[in-house]
Each structure stands twice: as structure tokens, then as C-alpha cells.
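I'll show a record.
***
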Amino acid sequence: MTQTTTEFAPIPSPSSRVSVLTIVLCVISAVAIALAAVSAWLYFGPGGARDIAAIDQARAEVTQVSSDQAVAMFQYDHNNVDQQLHAATDGLTGEFQNTFTKLIESAIIPGAQEKALTVQVVVQGASILDVGPDTATTMLFLNQITTSKDSPEAVASGSRVKMGLEKQDGHWLVNSVQPF
């Protein structure tokens, strides 16, 4: 009788299995952490999704505020021009508010009352030229219809204005208006 010996392949020790498993888990964990860090940077970092959402929100607010403020500043009826234009100053910043108040009190209100001027304003379009977290610039396309005691038939005219805005205490206020 011959005896045969069977050779068996060596069985890896449990410690070597744990080492390979440990390395694989560490690599997977490192990749997951790296992906989480990249995702956070893309969302919170400069130009990230969070900034883009804030700028989109600012664009919508600035467009509406500049359009509303243009109507408030440029539209009036000679019968109550004083109240209308003084109410418009609430949407203006300090120095520009002072300049606008002097202009309306020295020229616009007396002229509107003397000539019985009525001006209607329609914002035909608004465009964002620049927007940041606290400042913005818009261009507005305005149509104005004017009547007066000397010219009772409506006279229509178009204009463009460049309006600067800044955010103060969470509200957008106009800090400049220029013909464009």
C-alpha cells in the first residue's frame, strides 16, 4: 500500500485578511471624504452654487426695486406732485436722497404745479449691468407720457437711465441715476 500525501495550499492567516480588508476600507473612506470636501467647496466656495443662488436672488430683487423706484421718481401728477415725489425719497440713499430732494423742491415741484404737468412712466425693460452681494447697476428703458396745460395732448418720449443701487439693512436703495 502506498501512501499518498496530499499537499494543501496554505490558508492565509486571519491577520493578513484583516490587513487587506482594512486597506480597502481606508481607501474607500478616503475617497468618500475627498468627494465630500470637493462637494462642499463647490457649494460654499467662491462662485459656488450658494453664491450663484444668492446672486440670482439679488438680480430678481434689483430688477423689481429699480423698476418700481424709477416709476416713483419720474411719475407724478401736478395735483399731488409734492407728496408723490417726497414719498419716492424713501427708496434713496443718504447723499443721493439729499440731492434728489433739493432738485424736486427747487425745480420739479414748482414747474409741475406752474405748468400743470402730469407725467406717466412705464418701464419697458430692465437689464442688470452688474450685481454683487451689496451693490448693483441696472439699465432701464422708460416710456414717458407727458401732458400739461400748454400741451394737453399727450407727448410720448423714451429714455434710458442707468441706476445704481446698494443694499442697506437688507433693502435695496438707489444711490445714483444717470441718463444713458
